C-alpha cells in the first residue's frame, strides 16, 4: 500500500539567495551540494533532506521555518 498524501515543502531559497547577492553556484558551495540541487530546489522540483534544510537556514542565519514551509496535502491514500 502506497501513501500519497500530496504533502509538499515550499521554500524561499531563491529569495534569500538573491537578497544575499549570491549565485546558485556560490550557495551550493557554501552548503555542500551541486548547483543543480539549488536550481531544482528553487523551482520546487526537489525537497531537501532535513540536514540540507537546516544547513541552508543556518547559512542565512534564520529559523528553518523562515525558508521552508510544510504544505499539507489532501490526506488520501492510494492502494
TrEMBL record:
Keywords: DNA-binding. It holds the Pfam family HTH_3. SUPFAM superfamilies: lambda repressor-like DNA-binding domains. It comes from the Bacteria. Residues 13-67 form the HTH cro/C1-type domain. The keyword DNA-binding applies. PROSITE patterns: HTH_CROC1 (PS50943). This is Helix-turn-helix transcriptional regulator. It comes from Tetragenococcus solitarius.
Amino acid at each position: 500500500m502506497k501513501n500519497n498524501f500530496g504533502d509538499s515543502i515550499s521554500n524561499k531559497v531563491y529569495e534569500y539567495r538573491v537578497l544575499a547577492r549570491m549565485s546558485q553556484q556560490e550557495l551550493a558551495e557554501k552548503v555542500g551540494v551541486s548547483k543543480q540541487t539549488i536550481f531544482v530546489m528553487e523551482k520546487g522540483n526537489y525537497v531537501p533532506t532535513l540536514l540540507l534544510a537546516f544547513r541552508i537556514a543556518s547559512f542565512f542565519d534564520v529559523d528553518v521555518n523562515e525558508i521552508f514551509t510544510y504544505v499539507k496535502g489532501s490526506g488520501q491514500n492510494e492502494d
